[in-house]
Amino acid sequence: MDAMLLAAMVPGSAKGHLADLGAGAGAAGLAASSRVGALQVTLFERSAMMADFARRSLALEQNRHLRDRVDIVEADVTLTGRARVAAGLKDDAFEHVVMNPPFNPEADRQTPDRIKAEAHAMPTGLFENWIRTACAIAKPGGQLSLIARPVSIGDVIAACGRRFGGLQVTPIHPRVGEPAIRILVTAIKGSRASLILRSPLVMHEGESHAFSPAVDALNNGLCDYPR
């Protein structure tokens, strides 16, 4: 669900190249590629195992139409300088950058499985490191989109700093009257526009466990998130 909401933040009119940082099995990047036919998408993932899952997904017959527009690169998105460029994360190369980083507290690393732990728990300085890379690889005026827990909003804003401006933050609530469980953030490289706190996105109506019609449409790639 997080990946589908993140993919919906990419405008349907988008063109050029999109980078999915820490792509895992590629859910967000593949969803954006499926919905926006003019995008070239690169999935960047450090884990060889997760990158292999992304390749298997792309190899499915149902995804044949995406293969010419999606590349999968094994790379650590926290690399810097020449090492980052050598890994394929080139300067000023992408019109869009999306990220769904591991955002649970580092104390949540309870599983002995290293891959699962890295996929879910947030190391110190994560947003600073990832957003630094996002800024390096985004073209001037390029859009960054990410999803995180509300507790990370200060870290996200601080990491964007002078790199990205025009932040728009959308809180996601399970139901009316309940606290937000996620935030969606978009920002523009080099913008000096002020931060905007947008109307909340409410997942369920009343006591129902079904998604609202608007959320269901976003989840199934039937529309963009309204701007």
From TrEMBL:
Q: Spell out the Gene3D superfamilies in the cross-references.
A: Vaccinia Virus protein VP39
Top-rank taxon: Bacteria
Q: Which residues form the Methyltransferase small domain?
A: 5-109
Q: Does the keyword Lyase apply?
A: no
Task: Give the matching InterPro entries.
Answer: SAM-dependent_MTases_sf, Small_mtfrase_dom, tRNA_Adenine-N(6)_MTase
* UniProt keywords, alphabetically: Methyltransferase, S-adenosyl-L-methionine, Transferase
Q: One of this protein's GO BP terms?
A: methylation
GO molecular function terms listed in the Swiss-Prot or TrEMBL record? methyltransferase activity
Keyword hit for Cytoplasm? no
PANTHER family the UniProt entry points to:
TRNA1(VAL) (ADENINE(37)-N6)-METHYLTRANSFERASE
> Could you tell me what this protein is called?
Methyltransferase
Q: Report the source organism.
A: Georhizobium profundi
